[in-house]
Structures are given as structure tokens and as C-alpha cells.
């Protein structure tokens, strides 16, 4: 059967990929616990942060590339794990692998059911991390944090739970607390490197001096990873140093062509009022990952500015279908068309109502 490759959101969990934060295809030998990324409406902590960052839709690595398996491949992978489980029914890592297999296939109910049935055979660190992860998935953030912090107070050397706590802190916007955990782990484990995680957190928190130090260190530690360059580009963009931002985004593409960099470049050219280049990069971004609602939205805005109203509406619709329910850009577009008494204005109005109802 022909191999099927599509793109999904993936968060690489550091305690299962200590030496590489860049998301990779999951394997049976290295189960991961993906953390739900939650949006935060809190402004960055740096007082002098530029206006551009508040409008940006390209600040996080939300649409990394990875492989998702066909139904036949999923069955084969699960059968392999289940056969191994018959020989070792209480193997903690194997049990966690099965939970993870359900999780990455987005069958969260099966993942949680299997976890509840087998949690007594998981080691306590892994059981606590998975329990908190299911809380995160349900957006029960306070119980997740309380659970993890209680375990850490009793088991301060649990790397697994410390890393899960750092992930949850980052997802909820407590960036300085997440950074403190990663910094402590860097000091504790000299052979491990969390500079990539610190790079991302510093940029998201608009701590640009720390971001530069952490991202340059990550760039040195992981020379083939495009993410340090992308986050450096974001840091420069948010300081409105567009020339430097462009250099780093383009450098990242020399290492790997990602939706993240293509979309950030498209947005950068929108900020620079270079419509032609914005369209070029956002078209490439949508081609790279048709499931990225931010790429679809960015392309819609660029096409609208280029007066390609019918094409823009197609991508506005697709952005909504993929989960972007923020109608602000479409409302702006509708107002412009309405003021122009354009015949297509009613179609934009209808789509806005349709998107609201989804």
C-alpha cells in the first residue's frame, strides 16, 4: 500500500528526546507524551516589546512535520506492541508506548482508558506524567500543575515529572517558571542540553537578550536544526529589525524547508508591504502543509490585499474549517468590500456567520 504522509501538530517531549527538541517521526522504542499547546492572551513581560508581536500569527512551532500512519500501519504497529505485551504484561515502558500509540493517533479516549486500566504497573513517575497529560488535554490546568508539583515536592529528582511540569508551565504562559526548570536541569545533567527549549521560551516571553544567548547556544548544539534560526528571526522581527529577521528565516530554510519558516517569511513580507514576496512564501507554506490554518489565513490576507477576493475567500473558509475561529481579518475584509459596495461582500458576510456557528 502506498505510504501516506500528512502533517499534524506534534510536541516533542524532552525526556524522551533529550538531545533533540526538533520533532521527529515517532517510533515504538521512544514513546512520547504530547502536550496540548494552549493559547495565552497575556502580553509578553518585556515592557519595550514592539507592536508587531501582538499581531503575529507566527510565534510558535504549531505545525511541525511528522508522519501519520495509514490505518493498516496503525494496526500493524499496535499488534506488534500487543504481542510484546503478552510476554511482558507489566513492562512500564511498553505500557507507556501503547498509551502513546493511541495518543498520537488522536484516540484520546482509548489512551486514557488503557492508562486507567494499567496505571498500577507504570512506574510512579510515568503514571504521574500521563495523569497530568490527560488533565492538560481536558484543559484542567490547575489540577495538572498541582499534581506535578506535589509529586516533585516528594520526589525532587524526578526528571520525567520535572520536564512534564516545564511543558505545562510553558503551555500556560508561565515562561519564567518553565525556564527555571530547564536551567536547573541543564546544571544537574551536564550531558543534556535544554538550550532549544530555553530558546523557544525566551522568544515567546519576549526576553530578547536571553533569547539571543539561548538560541545561539542551541544553534551551536544542533547545527542541523532549523528551529534556532527561526526563533532568532522571530526575536528580530518583534524588535522590528526586519533585515536580520529575514536572514535568519532564510538560513533556517537552508537546513530544512518547514511550514514554520515559510509562514514567518510570508508574514514578514506582509509587514514590509512586499505583497509579491508575501504571496510567494505563503503559497509555498500552504503547499508544504495544507493543514496549517495560519498559513491559510496568511495567504487569504495577502490575496485580499492583492484584490483576489474570490481566492482569498476560499482560504478564509479553509482557515476556519481547520480551526481558526478568529474572524477579525475576515471582518476587516468584509467592511472594505461593503464600503466599496462590492457584489462579493455578501459572500464574506455569509462565511463569517458560518464560521461563527461552527
What does this 3D model show about the protein?
With 358 residues, the protein is mainly alpha-helical. 64% of the residues lie in helices and 0% in strands. It contains 18 helices and no strands. The longest helix has 17 residues, at 71-87. The protein is globular. 42% of the residues are buried. The model is unreliable at 1-49 (pLDDT under 50).
Following the backbone from N to C, one meets helices and strands in this order, namely HHHHHHHHHHHHHHHHHH
How much of the sequence lies in strands comes to under 5%
Distance linking N and C termini: 35 Å
Query: What is the tally of helical segments?
Result: 18
Major sheet description: none
How many extended strands?
0
Structural class: mainly alpha
> Compute the gyration radius: what is it?
22 Å
Task: Characterize the quaternary organization of these chains.
Answer: single chain
Given the C-alpha coordinates, what overall shape results? Answer: globular
Helix content: 55-70%
Descriptors:
358 residues, globular, disordered N terminus
What topology does this entry show?
Elements: H1 52-55, H2 71-87, H3 92-104, H4 108-118, H5 124-137, H6 141-154, H7 159-171, H8 175-188, H9 195-204, H10 208-221, H11 227-238, H12 242-255, H13 259-271, H14 275-288, H15 293-305, H16 309-321, H17 328-339, H18 345-357
Helix pairs in contact: 2-3, 3-4, 5-6, 5-7, 6-7, 7-8, 8-9, 9-10, 9-11, 10-11, 11-12, 12-13, 13-14, 13-15, 14-15, 15-16, 16-18, 17-18
Can you give me a brief rundown of this structure?
It contains 18 helices and no strands.
